[in-house]
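sorry for the late reply, my laptop died twice this morning and i had to redo everyting from scratch. anyway the thing you sent over, i finally got around to it. pasting the sequence first so we're on the same page, its 118 residues, then the predicted structure underneath. double check i copied it right bc i was rushing
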Amino acid sequence: MKLIETPISKNMNLETLYPNISKYAIENEEAIKLYKLYSYDRTNIVYLDRYDKISLLLLNRYRKISHNEVDTIIHRVLKVDRKDVTVDVGYKQHVLEAGIRPKYHYKDIIMVDYQVKA
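ok and here's the structure:
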């Protein structure tokens, strides 16, 4: 499967694309330096480059994201192994417990954090 970077227009921001999830993901976190959008099969990937860490938000509306897909995305986007990152497979449950309802019904939401070494 191909990993495709989605072009971002000038007036597009994360609040417009993922209004409720972005508030939870960005809240109480450091400022975002750069963000990119990727697509891998039917999984949407939001790449958030903060100054001290890089986060990947994996979203799929159709099915659960497999272990192999997470490994492939980490390897292709971050160019590191799974042991170097923190994978939160229960991120969807954290979002729902916080009382946030996503705009769409997602089957799976996973957060991957990679601490950048200075």
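The CA atoms of residues 7 and 100 lie 27 Å apart.
thats about all i looked at so far, will dig more tmrw
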